[in-house]
């Protein structure tokens, strides 16, 4: 098959326009944060976006000062404030929206992401791998790694530090995921060089490439109670190369990209003999990789 | 613990000097290739290197034109031509050497890497994931993912396309590996942008970062029977950042770096609450990741 044939075939299969919304939530300002998210969703939709991804904990803010505050800023899903507002926006603008919320279930909190679409609430993801002081407020996720079927293809959600675990991307790809939507609140990693791509972007590119996954990372910006967030939102194609270049380190911004699922699925075939997911040597991989029989890691 | 204390402690724990030898083997010229490798090993050792990594299939060349030629250029391990010569060099220069050979075992060939040291032959690795036309000549590796103990720490070997499989790095890290030595013959990946870091370097950085592994990638250069190789050898530290910047795309070169195993093992601790290998949610990871009960993938 020649490259030109491949391009023609791809053009006949429609692309999806996706958007990563980079914004600056302020801890405690739920109504204002939600308002900004709704304005940016409308802007992205009017620019043609069919899938819009917002940052992690976008309505509550991230750096809580107490358990009381964390519970105060949390909400139920899907009945809560943010999910309901995003449902309305998704219906109004005919888009899918993925956004991060502090989810409250009685005396438990989860760092969650919700997906809503024109037909209403689609599903929830609960962050599996907690970072830093999140251990003071949240329970570890207990919904596993679900993949949601939409008219555009198979979508999954993961959150921030989950992206440090290649197992996460593998398990989503093995379930057929096409696009991973990642609300994040990335913080600086030690050793970052001046002008070097941030490590979180490197991880997204590597995991996209070896799994044939599109990845939409929407990060926040700003400094909250002394914690800097690094922006640099990115949309990566299934071949591992950025479709939308890293966003600003400190400004609110919407990144857009067109994703073609036919090209994405084809990108998993590397040579006549090689299909990256099928080349896995599961005959020698070891139960050390994880077999589902251990206790959760609180 | 303050940063200055940490630096002082690290300085008391000796660093190791390692070298990645980027050279241009010529297919069929075994004696000449070996001669060049011995000259570069001597140069690296006289510059202080204690571990020297050579490219994949460095003595045979890579692009075989027939099974007869592949068998002709292969050799036994450790009794063969290259391993014996490297053993002598390792003894003479007091270094560890890791190099790629086509290993012949009766009517079977393996794309192998051997490790030799001042005390003689240490061990062999057989490439687990075959790339492209390697499927015409080689059997898939059947030695698993061994970790070898040396006076410097725990060393492992993998080869080229093995680096596309995050499972490989995870299983080595879970066995305590400190340094992964990777003879490679990297070829161009589709979609590479002008001036962008090559995808293989991105993969090495990502896998180093999420596993706390040092990775020494020694690639070849040149074009062999129409196949271009991309150079860009790299040595990555356990925090994921390059210790020696990508090598030239087309010139013979030796890259050097100092690796401190105390700093490497400390780099796995990311926050008070986070240690990257121990944060793995093995309670939810699925047997899809690999459980060792399937047939080998020929």
TrEMBL record, chains A, B:
<keyword id="KW-0378">Hydrolase</keyword>
<protein>
    <submittedName>
        <fullName>Predicted amidohydrolase</fullName>
    </submittedName>
</protein>
<dbReference type="InterPro" id="IPR036526">
    <property type="entry name" value="C-N_Hydrolase_sf"/>
</dbReference>
<dbReference type="InterPro" id="IPR050345">
    <property type="entry name" value="Aliph_Amidase/BUP"/>
</dbReference>
<dbReference type="InterPro" id="IPR003010">
    <property type="entry name" value="C-N_Hydrolase"/>
</dbReference>
<feature type="domain" description="CN hydrolase">
    <location>
        <begin position="16"/>
        <end position="261"/>
    </location>
</feature>
<dbReference type="GO" id="GO:0050126">
    <property type="term" value="F:N-carbamoylputrescine amidase activity"/>
</dbReference>
<dbReference type="Pfam" id="PF00795">
    <property type="entry name" value="CN_hydrolase"/>
</dbReference>
<dbReference type="GO" id="GO:0033388">
    <property type="term" value="P:putrescine biosynthetic process from arginine"/>
</dbReference>
